[in-house]
Amino acid sequence: MPAEASTFPAVAVATESWPPNVRKATRLLHPRGVAVVADPDEPPLPFADNALDLVSSRHPATVWWSEIHRVLAPGGRYLAQHVGPASAFELIEYFLGPQPQARRSRHPDDEVAAAEAAGLEIVDLRTAQLQITIHDVAAVVYLLRKVIWWVPDFTVDRYLDRLRDLHDRIRIEGPFVAHSTRHLVEARRPEE
């Protein structure tokens, strides 16, 4: 999180698309000299061509590679942690059933190809798979009410039978395990 950085460059700007986060980011970052720009999370990014030496992101909803290339100065870098493919799909598919097309979404090979097609060089790509261990259905309800895009129509009433089945499964077999995937991407706009 940018607010946790010990120092900032002379000019630093953060963008945010969700209004409650715009307010929170402004409250945290403005006193540290960082401007916060409300942005709709779609092109164009609110910066001039070649304006930035570094673009960073944590869990971008959509990666606009051509926009990243456009706003980076020659030699500028992009550093981000992206959500990887099929992240938490054991849980998502438990409720929604098989999602074969969505499983390929956010694949690092596809993102590398898109970044390169936009004119960026991939400097480093690291992937990780992390375990999510769920010990009870209360945690599932809490999680699916916070991460609303995993099971978009989730309500306890709508999925009560699946929740009961999951409760019984956890009681008999032990914790439900899902896997979260991430990849760290470092890209560079070549010198011209």
Largest sheet: 4 strands, mixed
Determine the fraction of residues in helical runs and give it as a percent range.
25-40%
Oligomer: single chain
**CATH third-level topology:** Rossmann fold
Q: What is the count of DSSP helices, taking H or I runs of 4+ residues?
A: 7
Beta content comes to 25-35%
Strand order of the largest sheet: 3-4-6-5
CATH class annotation: Alpha Beta
List SSEs in N-to-C order: EHEEHEHHHEHHE
User: What ranges have pLDDT less than 50 throughout 5 or more consecutive residues?
Assistant: none
**CATH superfamily caption:** Vaccinia Virus protein VP39
Reported CATH architecture: 3-Layer(aba) Sandwich
Overall pLDDT level: 95
Report how far the terminal alpha carbons are from each other.
Answer: 32 Å
Looking at the structure, what is the overall shape? globular
How many domains? The number is 1
**Alpha carbon gyration radius:** 20 Å
How many β strands by DSSP?
Answer: 6
Judged by helices, strands and strand pairing, the structural class is alpha/beta
